Amino acid sequence: MLNLLKQETEKFKLFLQNNFQVTIILASATLFLLFQQHYTLIFSRTLSQFIYYFILPITTTILILHQNLLDFGLRIGNFKLWFFYILLSPYL
Length: 92
Fold this sequence. Notes:
Layout: H1 2-18, H2 20-38, H3 45-63, H4 79-88
């Protein structure tokens, strides 16, 4: 029984090592959603949402994941393509 528990904990540890970024992103997103729902940091709801949905994810990305924010979709990208889609979107 202890051998099975040891094997399972080793496999779980290996899973967390291989999927560290995904685990941190999912856990922090879940925590930020829960905190925003149950705790308002500041009297303004808009400012509280800005903190939970913008400031805290950016802080997590920089401090814990040590990644560039541009790698997470904050680049301009192919603006000729998305500008075309924006022009077409009201007609779809």
